[in-house]
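Think of the structure tokens as a kind of shorthand, similar to the way a musician reads notation: each symbol stands for something richer, in this case the local conformation of the backbone. In the example below we present two proteins back to back. Begin with the first one, reading the sequence and then the tokens, and try to describe in your own words what changes along the chain.
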Amino acid sequence: MLFQLRSRPRKPSRTAIVCLAGAAIFFLFECSGLHFPIWNAKGRLDKHLTADLGLSLPPGSKVTHAISIAYRDPGECYALEIPQAAVAPFIAAVRAAGTDSQDLDPAYPWHFGYRVPSWWKPQSLPQPERLNTYHNDKFGGYEWFYSPTSSTVYVFWFRT
């Protein structure tokens, strides 16, 4: 035989490794349902409110918890402390600024299709109320859980 083929194990190509690593990272950050902390959560929520509804959080508001959920449609959960006297006017402004705003039954089982964070407890609000509203472009919206007698507000922001 003039030519003899050597039987060496083939190494995976760099391109294949890079593609697989890229797919794994994409899955982790976009489809896994994992929760990631949000840095500058108040600024980020204010940015969403300004872009989507032309509003900002009332003065004295604080974001106590915030996560971003890695899923194919982005979603973010926030727990807020808003001065109690500002809750009703702020929710009225959200209702007026949003599209297709609806008051919904807060007792109706609802979850955002992902693992719920341990601090997400709208059911513990006294006399809870729930408002669903969409962005002006209708490519996402907000779920607001609040009480007229509490300063705690929970909000789920999503984009489709």
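Once you have a description of the first chain, move to the second and do the same.
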Amino acid sequence: MFDRLDETWQAIRVEVKPKTASNKVAVVFAGAAHTHRLARAAMVLIDADFVAETSPLTRAVYECALTTHWAAQVDDSALQLSDQEIRAHRALVRELQEARLLDQIPPERRKLPSDQDQHITKITFEQICDDLNPGGDEAYAIYRILSAYSHATTTAIGRYLQPDDRQPLGFTASDVAEPEEPDFQVFLLVASLVWAGRAVDYFDSGHSRRSELRSAARAIGINSELVPSDKFHMRTI
């Protein structure tokens, strides 16, 4: 199923609906493209039996897919994401200044954005999950699980430890002690392709992939469309 979804994505020809905001289209199409490319790389690792090592990529795919799906349905999503980028860049520049490392980034990236460049309330991925239904706590919990296996946590590094009768602590230098099954990660990768593809479908006047995406969603037991939640409507009143 993954290969088929990826194949039809790469062959897609979209006719954008008239009067659609170009900045939103750009964010959604680029987000969907990034989702698919990262997912393709993740599947290469899984096919090579690097399942544990795929967690950081799967997390990135999942985050990008949900963000893209959210962006397709929120009127000022492009501005909110741009605003978040400004905040992150401001923090980076200040940290580099304090560490006297500012000359390590290109000159055009050294400018510190002004407070006037700020427009909207900070948006986080947890907020994005809360804005979607289905989504919310369950969606964010999946992200947290993937994060635990993506960073230098005891959860992640503990996979290389194993009992050893000859010494107090044993470890394996080349592989995880208990190899993981890829099913959950493959499920998330396929789901992410559905959500990213469905985001693009909102703007496709011909809806060339809608039936395929809905069919794939039914096959793996997910909703192909994540709609704005009650929390979103309350937040934006």
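Compare your description with these statements about the second chain. Residues 22-47 form the longest helix (26 residues).
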